[in-house]
């Protein structure tokens, strides 16, 4: 084979980042080599996202550039992977005289043969969804590093009314617990320090009777010096057992991404979220009791169909009541095929923008206040490398996933855990003073009462 250099570009969620590593795992077994230079690639793959229209528009824009590269010199095979492949299927091949292959999230095993055919001039499309594919036997291609994503389940059965994911990624299925544990064992040997267990809805992990709490307990035991994170949790399935598993494992980070989406019960019902705000707030309270110091982040959608000023105020109110450490905030974007698509997208764009800006401003002021309250406290930071702005400073993250920047210190290298004293804060970054190297505590920090 002479067409053997693959370039891959990834959009969307962390699941896609993990999938791109999987794709490279599949292709490297077949003798392909990864390149970071699009200009020297024989195969250009774009792993795409459909969650909002602006994500798709950005990717269409990028495809325009790629067409220029292909036409001007490289003649590379171009493939679209991921959620847009699943959603748009052969339109991608028909509309743009650019794309050679279209492969959805459950058909990556067939990529080598699609690429071979495309090199021979035959376009290909594979977009069947599977009820069983988890790729658990495939070792993802990972460069050396500290931090790894591990997908523990695929798909989603929740069918939130606005969301395209159940259509692009199919039904929920979980990987075996043993295969996940053995992947973490390998990462431990390679010196990784942080593993994030991924799924669209990790709380419904279930493999031969083992639930997500069982998985967390098993994953945390592999190496107590590896921090375990996980995302995303759905408020409906966050069990007490899971909260105790977080509290009782010192290396499971006390940080829960728990999207609320809206503060209005009427909107939550229309979104098919299956919980009320009262239930959600109780859950937060329960988690705070079981896991002292736990942090939360959330996702918010502004301008859902029929959303009134009162509904919007209810969302602002939830942000104030919970005081999240961070939030991902979006304008509602209608997605074809979803239940919400049948409703009129009746909140005008200017109003969506204004509401979104109010949400962002409020959250920023909360993040700033919460970060400033940390000044004077001490925390453990996993050192990742130099800070973005200067090689005189190092940066890393706390258990609560906050970035801390502190002056470089002799003998401190990426992968070290260090104690820092927080001395300053913005809404996005903490500044600290280096106190000394440390290791992760082996004892639980939660109460079991
Ligand atoms: N419009 C806007 N935001 C959306 N999300 C999912 N679908 C849509 C949509 N149609 C947001 C949700 C979800 C996050 C990953 O993306 O907040 O939690
Ligand atoms: Fe985008 Fe959702 Fe697909 Fe992730 S699962 S790539 S967020 S559409």
Walk me through what this model shows.
By secondary structure, the protein is an alpha/beta fold. The chain has three domains: 5-126, Methylthiotransferase, N-terminal domain (Rossmann fold, 3-Layer(aba) Sandwich), CATH 3.40.50; 147-372, tm_1862 like domain (pyruvate-formate lyase- activating enzyme), CATH 3.80.30.20; 378-438, Beta Barrel (OB fold (Dihydrolipoamide Acetyltransferase, E2P)), CATH 2.40.50.140. Helices cover 35% and strands 23% of the residues. The strands form six sheets. The chain has a six-stranded parallel sheet, with helices on both faces. Helix 5 links the parallel strand 5 and strand 6. Helix 7 packs parallel to helix 8, helix 8 runs parallel beside helix 9 (240-248) and helix 12 packs parallel to helix 13. The protein is globular. The structure holds 5'-deoxyadenosine and iron/sulfur cluster. Iron/sulfur cluster (SF4) is lined by residues 12-13, 15-16, 49-51, 82-83, 164-165, 168-169.
């Amino acid at each position: 084979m002479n067409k053997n250099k693959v370039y891959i570009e990834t959009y969307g969620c962390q699941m896609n980042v993990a999938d791109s590593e999987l794709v490279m795992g599949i292709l490297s077994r077949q003798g392909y080599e990864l390149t970071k230079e699009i200009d020297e690639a024989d195969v250009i793959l774009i792993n795409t996202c459909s969650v909002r229209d602006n994500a798709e528009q950005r990717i269409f824009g990028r495809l325009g550039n790629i067409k220029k590269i292909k036409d001007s010199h490289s003649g590379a095979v171009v493939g679209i992977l991921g959620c847009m492949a699943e959603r748009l299927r052969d339109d991608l091949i028909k509309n743009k005289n650019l794309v050679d292959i279209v492969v959805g999230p459950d058909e990556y095993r067939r990529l080598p043969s699609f690429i071979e055919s495309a090199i021979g001039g035959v376009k290909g499309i594979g977009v069947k969804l599977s009820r069983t594919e988890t790729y658990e036997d495939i070792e993802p291609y990972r460069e050396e590093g500290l931090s790894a994503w591990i997908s523990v389940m695929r798909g989603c059965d929740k069918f939130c009314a606005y969301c395209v994911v159940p259509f692009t990624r199919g039904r929920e299925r979980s990987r075996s617990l043993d295969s996940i544990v053995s992947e973490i064992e390998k990462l431990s040997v390679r010196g990784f320090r942080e593993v994030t267990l991924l799924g669209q809805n990790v709380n419904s992990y279930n493999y031969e009777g083992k639930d997500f709490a069982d998985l967390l307990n098993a994953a945390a035991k592999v190496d107590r010096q590896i921090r375990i994170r996980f995302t995303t949790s759905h408020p409906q399935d966050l069990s007490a057992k899971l909260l105790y598993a977080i509290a009782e494992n010192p290396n499971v980070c006390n940080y829960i991404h728990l999207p609320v989406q809206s503060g209005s019960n009427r909107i939550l019902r229309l979104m098919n979220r299956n919980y009320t705000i009262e239930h959600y707030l109780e859950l937060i309270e329960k988690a705070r009791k079981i896991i002292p110091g736990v942090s939360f982040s959330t996702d918010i959608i502004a301008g859902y169909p029929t959303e009134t000023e009162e509904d919007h105020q209810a969302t602002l109110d939830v942000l104030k009541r919970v005081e999240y450490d961070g939030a991902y905030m979006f304008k509602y974007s209608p997605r074809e095929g979803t239940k919400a698509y049948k409703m009129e997208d009746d909140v005008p764009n200017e109003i969506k923008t204004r509401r979104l800006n109010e949400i962002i401003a409020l959250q920023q002021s909360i993040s700033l206040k919460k970060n400033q309250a940390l000044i004077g406290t001490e925390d453990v930071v996993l050192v990742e490398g130099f800070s973005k702005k200067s090689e005189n400073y190092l940066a890393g993250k706390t258990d609560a996933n906050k970035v801390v920047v502190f002056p470089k210190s002799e003998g401190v290298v990426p992968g070290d855990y260090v104690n820092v004293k927080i001395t300053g804060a913005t809404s996005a970054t903490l500044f600290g003073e280096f106190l000394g190297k440390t290791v992760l505590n082996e004892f639980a920090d939660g109460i079991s009462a």
